[in-house]
Design goal:
Two copies of one chain form a homodimer. By secondary structure, chain A is of the alpha+beta class. The first copy, chain A, contains 14 helices and 27 strands. The first copy, chain A, has an eleven-stranded mixed beta sheet with strand order 3-9-10-16-13-12-11-24-27-23-22, sandwiched between helices. In chain A, strands 18-17-19-20-21 form a five-stranded mixed beta sheet, with helices on both faces. In chain A, strands 4-8-5 form a three-stranded antiparallel beta sheet, with no helix packed on it. In chain A, a hairpin with a 5-residue loop joins strand 14 and strand 15. In chain A, helix 3 (42-61) packs across helix 6 (183-203). The longest helix of chain A has 26 residues, at 394-419. Chain A is globular, with a radius of gyration of 26 Å. The first copy, chain A, starts with a helix and ends with a strand. At the A-B interface, strand 2, helix 3, strand 3, strand 4 and strand 5 of A face strand 2, helix 3, strand 3, strand 4 and helix 4 of B.
Chain lengths: 494, 494
């Protein structure tokens, strides 16, 4: 397996192929019989569950509650918010019938034409419309506000070109939908939630992100403002990893959601929505992994420590395994998730390669000599280094090492991003960097969609965001030479 | 509100109306704009989340892992397992197109006829077919077995007559799908999981259940054996609350899933599937609630203890609330979920009624006199009793009381079921009990579908199950008079 792996996984040769191989060989996901829909396999789903648990707690800690809204949306709902339907809802799965029947010719089942729906139903691509149609009945007065709901759900967007986790027809996500009495409160919520996403990306996934505002042309359909977190992958392309939208009163107006304010006057409700998806799995995989396989940050690793015995014969196996079980119990007491792999039908080299492939942060190996000497061998997945250490104080050492690995993975990604972020002042330089180096490019832009469009058409790079913390700086647009007050972030992207 | 509630909720007058009102007024769920699909509101979803967490832990403790399979199933898959398609898959949501377009007449969006799918996709009503099509690629040898996967998902069955939680077009559930090398192992898994469900129903939901086998006619389409847990609601009707199916080699044969056994010979894989759904919410609500509202078992209550200050003026409010906060902190330290309701715009009587409606197990009330005396008033939701107790040792007292309430709710439901379970030996008696008393009826049956069908047609009662622990007992079928070896369980059901 170790050999087989090396043969097919080499990110310098073909990054895209490396990614796809890695997702499949590490047992994270695979394509299904349904075009564009993936199967998330147990190991991949275990990572997603850890992400969900962490995010869910962060949402609850910031006052949100979960709810569940219908999978289907009546077709007519999409037309109610004009820019939403224009920008969005075209590539959707459409339910037209509600019954199958036996084929009279005996060839299995066919759609029953007598069971046609009066109005077609769309499988939700996002739920603003159905949720705001629901909120209409929940909101009468300012006392009913704010509403701070989140939903964990599956959504469907009929993508033509799909890639596991990064772009699939069906994907899993959470979508927050909040309703507020004032514009200020909704704006604050929009900012708060992009902050939660940035916190999660950096402190759980170990992925540094740039927080910024989308340009007009990249904004969510129906939003007045879209905030985003942008991460950089190892091939120098950006990945949009989460968005938070200030929706103004657009959906409230479309669905006629008004409330009586403290003065007793009717006003439309202010809205936000925000979401992250299984796309984060793609970001996690691409940000840290190497040619040996996944590199998982300890906080999201389903198995944090794997313990492997080295032995000759059953007696040694029993002795070593007994001691490993002791160690495992002590690790568990500290909240560390462990696995002992005492399979006797595969070689230990195979096991080492397998857990490297799966990105287990720490490997503890013990042989008869270790047993005698009171030592173990510890191997780190992130640095691929090994050392022999005393069994004394091992649990605390492992706990510290997990923190160290978590921090190192982030630092490494941050250093990479810094190296791969280039300030340019001319279009020539822009194109040169994009072609030969890639990564994030900070350049001045005149703020017009025409310039943005030209750059996109000529270079395939887009404005990822206007960073919120960009310092004011006088400059000239690299295309038009018109004055600009701050640099914006360009990159090719997923 | 207290008055308004009493006016509309009276289960003796109209049980069905009482149930629906309760679900809506307690903020658990409501109907949506999409026929048959419900919105699960935050309070209802919070209960469901507690159910999910407990079940998920039980599944993992028994060796299962989670995964995720596609929402859509190609139509042709349904025809592959003959009895599955016959018994099942007709009332389904059918996706025929994948794109909308702007109506050239300017009336919003219409379905794009150029975007018709080559093969229609069915929104999963259950996932045996797509999962077994996937397992085919996961299984080559006995070393790949067992596969013990569970999925938390939404499913759609196009029900014509729907009721919140009990029968909805879309519902949430979990579906376990396991693959085994031997028949014995699959049978053991089938039994183990119905045991897990019974454990959950009784020890978490406080709902006593009868474990039994479904008759041939009530078996899951595609199964060789279906085990069920049957609960009794307060109106004397049964609710099937969870099922576990032994699928034999039916799906393995339909999808050609073979494995090399230890002897190197090819054999078909043995299968089980098992599931519980948001229907459990219906069971939970109907089993315990009264005319004041919900009665929730403490283990599933989102708020276990509500603390309410009684006061005149702001100074008293501040003093009492400060003390309540102390108490709340001490309760939280014991893992108890608490809420302090110090709203000053509603009367305390309104609050009492609201938390009774929401089924909060314990209410702690404190006024200035309590503050002075070092006491609080404790009210139990299950018995509607109150007592004044010392603040000394309060957290431990509350912890014990929560256990006592959990036990009492179960005992009460068990006593009710025992009173409402009747052994009958003649068809006359059967009909008389069914009409005047309801509940579970234990009667002898000759084992034929003809007898079962006649009883169902004439009385609307069905065989809920053949209880696994039914003692052997010689008797005669109440219809045919033919010999029978054990009584089976009849009831009208949801």
């Amino acid at each position: 397996m170790a050999k087989e792996l090396k043969e097919v996984i080499n990110k310098e040769e073909n990054y895209s192929q490396w990614y796809n191989n890695l997702v499949i060989k590490a047992g994270l996901a695979e394509n299904s019989a349904v075009r564009g829909c993936m199967v998330i396999k147990p190991y991949g789903y275990a990572i997603w569950e850890k992400m969900q648990a962490a995010l869910d707690k962060m949402f609850k800690d910031t006052g949100h509650v979960n709810a569940y809204f219908p999978l289907f949306i009546p077709k007519s709902f999409f037309s109610k918010e004009a820019s939403h339907v224009d920008g969005f809802a075209k590539e959707c799965a459409v339910v037209t019938h509600y019954r199958l029947k036996n084929d009279p010719d005996g060839n299995g089942v066919i759609v029953d034409d007598d069971a046609r729906l009066e109005e077609e139903l769309i499988v939700r691509p996002t739920s603003e419309t159905i949720i705001w149609n629901t909120y209409k009945n929940w909101i009468q007065s300012y006392r009913d506000l704010p509403i701070l709901c989140n939903q964990w759900a599956n959504v469907v967007r009929w993508e033509m070109r799909t890639r596991l986790f990064l772009r699939t027809a069906e994907f899993l996500w959470q979508e927050g939908h909040t309703a507020h009495a004032t514009k200020e409160e909704a704006l604050e919520e929009t900012r708060k939630m992009i902050g939660v996403y940035a916190d999660f990306a950096e402190n759980w996934m170990g992925v540094p992100v740039i927080i910024g505002r989308k340009s007009d042309s990249e904004r969510f359909a129906g939003a007045e403002d879209t905030l985003t977190i942008e991460a950089l992958m190892q091939d120098g392309k950006a990945l949009q990893s989460g968005t938070s939208h200030f929706l103004g009163q657009n959906f409230a107006k479309a669905f006629d959601v008004q409330f009586a304010n403290k003065e007793g006057k009717l006003d439309y409700v202010w809205a936000t929505s925000w979401g992250v998806s299984t796309r984060l799995m793609g970001a996690l995989i691409m940000a840290h992994s190497d040619n040996n396989g996944l590199v998982l940050p300890p906080k999201l690793a389903p198995i944090q420590v794997v313990l492997i015995p080295i032995y000759k014969g059953e007696k040694e196996l029993a002795e070593v395994t007994a001691k490993l079980k002791d160690i495992a119990e002590n690790l568990k007491k500290l909240g560390i998730s462990v696995k002992i792999d005492d399979r006797d039908n595969v070689r230990s080299g195979f096991k080492f390669a397998e857990y490297e492939l799966k990105g287990v942060p720490i490997r503890i190996v013990m042989g008869p000599r270790d047993l005698h000497n009171g030592t173990v061998e510890i191997a780190r997945r992130d640095t691929l280094t090994k050392e022999s250490v005393s069994q004394e104080g091992l649990p605390e050492r492992i706990l510290n090492l997990l923190d160290e690995i978590q921090a190192n993975i982030f630092e490494k990604a941050l250093k990479f991003r810094e190296e791969m972020t280039t300030k340019v002042d001319t279009y020539e330089e822009f194109k040169e960097v994009l072609e030969n180096k890639g990564g994030f490019i900070l350049a001045h832009w005149d703020g017009t969609p025409e310039t943005e469009e030209r750059i996109k058409n000529e270079t395939k790079a887009t404005i990822r965001c206007i960073p919120l913390d960009a310092p004011e700086e006088d400059g000239k647009c690299i295309i038009s030479g018109k004055p600009s007050k701050r640099r914006v972030l360009f990159a090719k992207s997923y």
